[in-house]
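W.,

You were right to be curious about this one. When I first looked at the sequence I had no strong expectations either way, so I just let the prediction run and decided to look at it fresh. Below is the sequence, 269 residues in total, followed by the output.
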Amino acid sequence: MKKYKIVVLSDLNSSTRTTLKSTVSLAKIVNGDIEVFSVKRPTDIVDKENQLSAIRTINSLHTKTDKKIQNLIQPISKDYEIAIKYSFAFGNIKNEISNFIKKSRPDIIVLGKRKPRPFNFIGDNITQFVLNTFKGVIMIATDKNALEPNKEISLGMLNNLEPSFNLEFAEDLMAHAQKPLKSFKIVKNSYLLKEIPQPANKKMVEYVFEHNDGTIKNLSNYLSKNNINLLYIDRAKQQTDNKTDLVMSDINNVVGKLNVTLLVTGVQK
């Protein structure tokens, strides 16, 4: 059985524990190994200090960061009996992440969903950076209604009836999901706008939404009503008329506005 390599990219904020729990849940479903990687900018550490003082500060922070990550990881590792490796670096965040991904070659990257900021500075959006550069599976975990290790997931699918061939561990995911599954579809034609229960043998209920300015809000309400805690999105290039397929701009909109953990598939090679 394949062992999937899962990398958690974290800035060690207050929601990291929740992100790790969701990661453990996924790892137990797909048979995955977990490694946490964190980066801090030197400018976050040293501000207007001389070189000797800067070195001392970095050495001190190295010890503090190591201890902080251990304090985050060890309780979760012990509670759920799973090994969690970790490493961290100081430098340009995007460069360090890019280098780490090339070196470690993960199958899955996990990111914590960041809360919206009043001002989004250029180059600050790490989630967007990873979506644009990493071609594998990405899980964007929210701290609301997180995945619980050793429990079934409440799986929803956006514009898909079932996980596609583009997800290697689709069968494992389905086997650990509550039934009936929920499918959410966004269409451009209003005549398709209705709720359609699927045949019993499909074990699925489908909700259809018309594409307009209120679509994401309505979708969010239905996800909440159905207690969905993992929404599957396929970002594979589709050879269709694009009536329901999500293009990258749509995925970015979903990522930014839905407060639910997202599982975004890899890109077809």
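Here's what jumped out at me. The helical segments are 16-30, 42-45, 51-80, 93-104, 126-133, 170-175, 215-225, 248-257. And, maybe more interesting for your project: The longest helix spans residues 51-80.

Coffee later to discuss?

I.
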